[in-house]
Amino acid sequence: MKLHPNMIDGDWVEGAPAPNRNPANPAEVVGLYARGTAEDAARAIAAAKAAFPAWSRSGPLQRHEVLKTAAAEILARKDELGRLLAREEGKTLAEGVGETVRAAQVFDFFAGECLRLGGEILPSVRPGVGVEITREAVGVVGLITPWNFPIAIPAWKLAPALAWGNTVVFKPADLTPGCAWAIVDILNRAGLPRGVLNLVMGRGATVGQTLLDSPDVRAISFTGSQGTGRRVAEASIRVMRKFQLEMGGKNPMVVLDDADLDVAVEACLNGAFYSTGQRCTASSRLIVTRGIHDAFVDRMKTRMAALKVGDPLDPSVQIGPVVDEGQLGVDEGYIRLGREEGAELIGGDRLGGDGYFLAPALFVGATNAMRVSREEIFGPVASVIEAADYDEALAIANDTEFGLSAGICTTSLKHATHFRRNAEAGMVMVNLPTAGVDFHVPFGGSKGSSYGSREQGRYAAEFYTTVKTAYILA
Ligand code: NAD
Fold it and tell me: pTM of the predicted model, to two decimals?
């Protein structure tokens, strides 16, 4: 089987082969990927540093063309890349292809942004002086990504980083190197100069930590768990670098008595269980008011029983496997815990076959104080929490350390408007699942979910550029 090497300073560099396994059939090796070392990471940082002066001063057209070419190739290969994604991460083929299309759209969007980076010219308060405000590239940027969106998250970090003239060391999650490798290969062939984009696959504790410890890495964009996010923050403060963290969620979906039951149930099913619940924006707390509670639970039960869990490449399957054995153990542990805490369990059975298949699990009669309602599980597990009325539902929704996404299902304009203004979350959804966002608008959360400026859309410029104010005596 061919080894997929790392990309350092424009060269493919071999390393110890690490097999990438299919969670639907762990005996199946999807590919062999080089496991980088701390030395590889250090060389990649040095190469990115050397490439920065020329790339940051390159014309926007050069960067535009690279990103546009990459977008076109990703789109043209969406079925093949979507299939690779489904095989390495376990999402369904439809989800994998959809995510791949989104990655192409992100590159396409930032190809345009290369040409639109503007500034401001203002008169100074001093006569005869002009003021010019411009945005410049930051320097070497470290990108550290999780396994759950293996092509979209790398795309939404790589595209703005490169568009605005930064050079990059990219460290993808060790569980999903396949999509990362493919995207780097595509960008490299699209015409990036040597050293501009470096890929070092491998362990967080070695490759990732080398990025954290290097003062030459001037910014780190991280998506992953809170624990690792804290390490990124602490290490970054030590060397006074810019950093941006996108972390977990415990996203509430409020369902009010006046909701359209069909809309609410479909939004909750999608938000809680699609992508096997492995989305930072998943709805893991379904907060349902008394009048609709029993009808909602009954309908959820019926719809959950009809969901097909299985091989993600089978087009009739809606929910693929859990990503690996470790995450499966975590999910099953929380399913046991929820019962011990006194909630009634619907579903949640470990299913047969060699893969890590788990039926969606719903806890009924849960409270917001239970650990299953407070801690991020990151699997197909959700709690139903009954609330007396809208005010209590809103209070429960906000009673969490997280603040990524929050949703409400209601036909009341008054409650929808109040919730939009008062939900403590970076993203609010009305009659839509808490997961599922557009690529051209800001993404991110509040409280313990995010730190730093927003990702995606034009707001990404806050992170990937730095502002310069120049004074000119005319
Ligand atoms: P993780 O924190 O274990 O790993 C994320 C990345 O950090 C991986 O590439 C990993 O190798 C790397 N890493 C680990 N230790 C490191 C270290 N010491 N130094 C540097 N890098 C290190 O998270 P995960 O399990 O891959 O992803 C799941 C988590 O990601 C969940 O908590 C989920 O909510 C979160 N997530 C958040 C968002 C968001 O935008 N808010 C999106 C997707 C996933």
Answer: 0.97
